Amino acid sequence: MNLTFPDKVFSEAEVIELYNNSYPKWKIKPKQQTRKPRATNTAFPPFTRRTPDGYYVAMDGDILAGWCGWKKIDSNLYLTAGSLTFPDYKQKGIQETLWPKRDIVFGGASVITITNNSQPKWVNFVDRFYPKSSIDLLPDNIQTQVQEALDFYEKKGKSPNIFYKGPTEDSAMQKAWSILKTLR
User: Fold this and answer.
1) Is residue 78 helix, strand or coil?
2) Is the Cβ–Cβ distance between 115 and 161 less than 8 Å?
3) How far is 182 from 184, CA to CA, in rounded Å?
4) Which pLDDT tens digit goes with each residue over 68-109?
5) How many CB atoms lie within 10 A of CB 94?
6) Element (H, E) at 101
7) What is the four-CA torsion angle of 48, 51, 56, 59, rounded to 10 degrees?
8) Domains of the chain (ranges plus CATH)?
């Protein structure tokens, strides 16, 4: 096993192709033999059912080992768009490597993630990056959509969680500086 973490940002189409090419090579097969585009996948609630802007991946030679994706909602907010480590590669530190890489993309902007995995180990992992939150702590303009996403997962018997990190001071300063530069 020789895990690599390319710096390239992969499109969803490229990740789906990697998935489909890797499927026959995995020892432990995921339930889905082929992957659907996120925007058409009814396993996701409408708020998160969006085409990701990009993915970072982990590779084992030509085999996809894992990924994490993102979607820019607006100039102040990013949505995480899935994280997955394939069973053959569990406990190899894949998400621990991919998430900090993805966080660089976010800069100081706000980030929201909605998980349907309520296992304490996963909740604690996500909470290291973005604090566990509640609807009332989110920006007003996304509260209804996020509540609908939570309801969607709860109807499927899941126990979803919201994690949210507001904008950092650096982000506010970067915005102010860019506005000042345009006024010159």
Assistant:
1) strand
2) yes
3) 6
4) 999 999 999 999 999 999 999 999 999 999 999 999 999 999
5) 23
6) helix 94-106
7) 110
8) 3-183 (3.40.630.30)
